[in-house]
Amino acid sequence: MSDPILTIENLKVHFQIAGGLFTKKQIVKAVDGISFSIMPKETFGLVGESGCGKSTTGRAIVKINQPTDGKIFFEGRDITKIKGAELRQFRKDVQMIFQDPYASLNPRMTVGEIIREPMDIHNIFKTKQERENRVRELLEIVGLKPDHIRRYPHEFSGGQRQRIGIARTLALNPKFVVCDEPISALDVSIQAQVINLLEDIQEEMGISYLFIAHDLSMVKHISDRIGVMYLGNLVEVGESDDVYRRPLHPYTQALLSSVPIPDPKTAREKKRIVLEGELPSPIDPPSGCVFRTRCPSATEKCAQSKPPTVKVGNRLVACFLYDEN
Q1: How far apart are CA 222 and CA 203, in angstroms?
Q2: How far from the centroid of its chain's Cα atoms is residue 240's Cα?
Q3: Pairing relation of β-strands 43-47 and 208-212?
Q4: Which residues pair with 80 in a beta bridge?
Q5: How confident is the model at residue 269 (pLDDT cuts 50, 70, 90)?
Q6: Rounded distance, CA 114 to CA 46, Å?
Q7: Exposed, middle or buried, 274 (CB in 10 Å: 0-12/13-18/19+)?
């Protein structure tokens, strides 16, 4: 069995909020001690409510956000604090597809300039003509026409812009790509096309994905394994089919119970788990288990200490319901 291409150990990303005249400085615990690994050519899906820390995790991996604590290993090498030439090489191997195709493309640059820019920065290919040929090739790979090279982003639809963003991501032949909700800003009819494109690219180029999304059914379709996050914590990790067929953590159960079912009869018979209360603030999370204030199975023990992550079959779950001790 091959080694993981990416390993995260106890990753924490905290942000300090400056205080005012009468208020103290506060700490937002966006990511608060998560661990997982991703294998070569694997798609790892990361799901959870808005504000749970999914995107912050992805941005920490690509070195946009600096981790507060913990370690990130890429191909067995600790890249948590790399700088200079090491960071430059890392950025060549690890790329990101951003959520908003409207905001992630420079409106003053042509499509050709946008896709060619990473190659210019990293000195890929010796001549400008070779780079332009590669740009045309990438446009064809993502389903666009080579003559689109002279156009500007505003001349394209949302789905086409996301394809341009994917082409730019592929310009350096990365080994690992963080997909930060790449389909959430697109029409439903276009989402499946982008997902199929990502799968085709993975099969052809052998890329590993961290796929961050809200659409649970889409995550199931594309992911080999799934991690469920809640308030900066990873509460469950397992094979995609296993997690959807039999969720273990109470939060995962509630999350999956909200997934729409296309069959009206099955949908009427399905029991929906409605969580009581509001999502706590990451500035002042609950003591012990962060989910306990909304959990129907919470006990006094849940308030006293944070549940350890235990192995249940092939699954990892952070819940006292499965803690043998």
Answers
A1: 12
A2: 15
A3: parallel
A4: none
A5: low
A6: 28
A7: exposed
Q: Which residue type, as a one-letter code, is found at position 153?
A: P
Run of H or E including 37: strand 26-38
Judged by DSSP in three states, 139 sits in helix
* CA pair distance 180, 56, nearest whole angstrom: 10
pLDDT at site 260: 66
Helices 158-170/111-121 angle, 10° precision: 20
Structure confidence by residue, pLDDT tens digits, 162-204: 999 999 999 999 999 999 988 887 777 788 888 888 999 999 9
Looking at per-residue pLDDT, the higher value among 321 and 324 belongs to: 321
Chain center to CA of 37:
13
- Strands 176-180 and 208-212, how do they pair? parallel
Both tokens assigned to 30: 């966006």
pLDDT top residue among 9 and 263: 9
Please tell me the distance from the alpha carbon of residue 186 to that of residue 182, in angstroms, as a whole number. Answer: 8
Tokens 């199929």 sit on residue: 196
Give CA 23 to chain center in angstroms: 34
SS3 81: coil
**Is the CB of residue 167 less than 8 Å from the CB of residue 144?**
yes
Closest CA to 303 of 312, 292, 294: 292
Q: At what angle do helices 128-141 and 111-121 cross, to 10 degrees?
A: 120
Centroid of chain to Cα 146: 30
Angstrom CA distances, 32 to 168, 198, 227, stand at 32, 30, 15
- In order of 18, 125, 160, the CA distances from 192 in angstroms are 42, 33, 13
Q: Which residues of 157-173 are buried (b: 16+ CB within 10 A; e: fewer)?
A: eebbbbbbbbbbbbbbe
Please give the span between the terminal C-alpha atoms of the chain, in angstroms, as a whole number. 31
